[in-house]
């Protein structure tokens, strides 16, 4: 019985047909006896969420993916880690009877049911919703306080900052404190920086981690100092999220802090530090990234190379030229890409050597990079590359020669870098 209902709800999430209150009540009633997986699927349909945080960026001529920031787990149940709710309802009217059906279950004993209701109501800004969630946040039951914090985060009402801050610092339930920290990150008001900074010392891991995430969401340089202390946390999850937050803030004052994180015993933290330095794009981070080019873990080296390509400073050319000799072909291809991003003439000779690499992706990317640099010194090597046995290399060489010969801005050549550089612990 639940399968056809879920199918109909997925159609609703696509905009056809609209939900009615009877359907909502019937589905919620059946979900009470379903397992957690079914309830999570229903939550996805009812609240229309599912996108991973972070995204990849391409560019004309070279499909170069950016690393993805650390996914944060969504509090409140009814969903999986690393997903974010994006309600349909903000952009269209909803039958008041449907909202009443969700209000009727906001205090339900089933956690998934009431949290679905909190997300729906929070995203529709119905009259009285703020007071409803505030009352839940002050309830004697910890599970209802968690739902109240969840709803206030969905509502994104700045009036909730003070009560959420109090809940985050004083509530005896770690789940409530964590959800309050998440809600403050959703509201994104700078006044929350101080209470969130204090929460970095919470006794519960998930509270500390969520507080670090929230500071990254607010994106204010005043959070750099407290986040730097979180790099001493004993748990890798907190350190990872603190480094991610520093990358989100994108303030150069974090570069020395990230240099410390780049020495972390866990390679995931070192990789995340490289990503953050690439986000900040300060030349002050080059020396740290050059050190990471010698990291024993290939993923760390690849992310450091990506970051140097983002910074686009000619001072990194010698280190990247050395990385063109790395044993990992993905590292070599990314090094060629980064040299093309920097567009410094001193990279021509090492890239000409890379045109003869045993890996076709390295050769194609080297050809693309030479086209970006547009130096006549590359003409002979690129002409020879037009006879390469691999079509992608020949096309990249032809495009590069056009760039050099007549400055033809023809980017109809797709040079693909094989590795997907992701920072997603």
CATH topology of the domain at 1-54 and 81-187: Leucine-rich Repeat Variant
- Count the E strands: 4
Mean pLDDT: 85
Major sheet description: 2 strands, antiparallel
Determine the N-to-C terminus distance: 38 Å
Question: Can you describe what's shown?
Answer:
- The chain is mainly alpha-helical.
- The chain has a domain at 1-54 and 81-187: Leucine-rich Repeat Variant (Alpha Horseshoe).
- Helix content is 59%, strand content 3%.
- It has 23 helices and four strands.
- The chain has helices spanning 2-13, 21-31, 36-47, 96-103, 111-122, 129-137, 142-155, 161-170, 174-187, 193-199, 205-218, 224-230, 236-249, 255-261, 267-280, 286-292, 298-311, 317-323, 329-342, 348-354, 360-373, 379-385, 391-406; strands at residues 49-52, 62-63, 83-85, 415-416.
- The strands form two sheets. Strands 1-3 form a two-stranded antiparallel sheet. A two-stranded parallel sheet has the order 2-4.
- Helix 13 packs parallel to helix 15 (267-280).
- The longest helix has 16 residues, at 391-406.
- The two termini are 38 Å apart.
Please describe the topology of this protein.
Layout: H1 2-13, H2 21-31, H3 36-47, E1 49-52, E2 62-63, E3 83-85, H4 96-103, H5 111-122, H6 129-137, H7 142-155, H8 161-170, H9 174-187, H10 193-199, H11 205-218, H12 224-230, H13 236-249, H14 255-261, H15 267-280, H16 286-292, H17 298-311, H18 317-323, H19 329-342, H20 348-354, H21 360-373, H22 379-385, H23 391-406, E4 415-416
Parallel strand pairs: 2-4
Antiparallel strand pairs: 1-3
Helix pairs in contact: 1-3, 2-4, 3-5, 5-7, 6-7, 7-9, 8-9, 9-11, 10-11, 11-13, 12-13, 13-15, 14-15, 15-17, 16-17, 17-19, 18-19, 19-21, 20-21, 21-23, 22-23
């Amino acid at each position: 019985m639940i399968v056809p209902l879920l199918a109909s709800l997925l159609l609703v999430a696509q905009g056809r047909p609209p939900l009615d209150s009877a359907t909502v009540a019937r589905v919620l009633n059946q979900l009470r006896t379903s397992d957690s997986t079914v309830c999570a699927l229903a939550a996805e349909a009812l609240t229309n969420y599912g996108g991973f945080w972070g995204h990849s960026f391409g560019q004309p001529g070279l499909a170069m993916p950016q690393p993805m920031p650390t996914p944060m787990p969504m509090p409140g149940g009814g969903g999986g880690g690393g997903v974010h709710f994006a309600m349909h309802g903000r952009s269209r009217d909803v039958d008041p009877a449907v909202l009443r059906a969700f209000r009727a279950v906001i205090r339900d004993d089933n956690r998934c049911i009431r949290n679905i209701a909190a997300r729906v109501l929070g995203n529709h800004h119905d009259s009285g919703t703020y007071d409803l969630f505030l009352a839940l946040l002050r309830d004697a039951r910890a599970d209802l306080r968690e739902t109240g914090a969840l709803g206030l985060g969905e509502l994104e009402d700045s009036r909730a900052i003070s009560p959420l801050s109090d809940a985050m610092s004083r509530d005896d339930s770690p789940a409530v404190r964590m959800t309050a920290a998440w809600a403050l990150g959703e509201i994104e008001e700078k006044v929350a920086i101080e209470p969130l900074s204090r929460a970095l010392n919470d006794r519960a891991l998930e509270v500390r981690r969520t507080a670090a995430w929230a500071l990254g969401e607010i994106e204010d340089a005043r959070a750099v100092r407290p986040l730097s202390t979180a790099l001493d946390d004993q748990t890798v999850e907190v350190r990872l999220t603190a480094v991610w937050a520093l990358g989100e803030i994108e303030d150069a004052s974090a570069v020395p802090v990230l240099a410390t994180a780049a020495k972390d015993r866990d390679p995931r933290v070192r990789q995340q530090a490289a990503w953050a330095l690439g986000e900040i794009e300060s030349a002050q981070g080059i020396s740290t990234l050059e050190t990471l080019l010698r990291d024993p873990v290939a993923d760390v080296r690849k992310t450091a190379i990506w970051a140097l390509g983002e910074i686009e400073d000619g001072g990194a050319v010698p280190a990247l030229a050395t990385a063109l000799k790395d044993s990992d072909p993905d590292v070599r291809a990314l090094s060629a890409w980064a040299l093309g991003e920097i567009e410094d003439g001193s990279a021509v000779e090492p890239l000409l050597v890379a045109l003869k690499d045993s890996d076709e992706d390295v050769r194609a990317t080297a050809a693309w990079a030479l086209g970006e640099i547009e130096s006549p010194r590359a003409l002979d090597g690129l002409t020879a590359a037009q006879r390469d046995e691999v079509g992608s290399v020949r096309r990249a060489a032809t495009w590069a020669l056009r760039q050099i010969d007549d400055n033809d801005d023809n980017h109809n050549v797709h040079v693909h870098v094989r590795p997907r550089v992701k920072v997603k612990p």
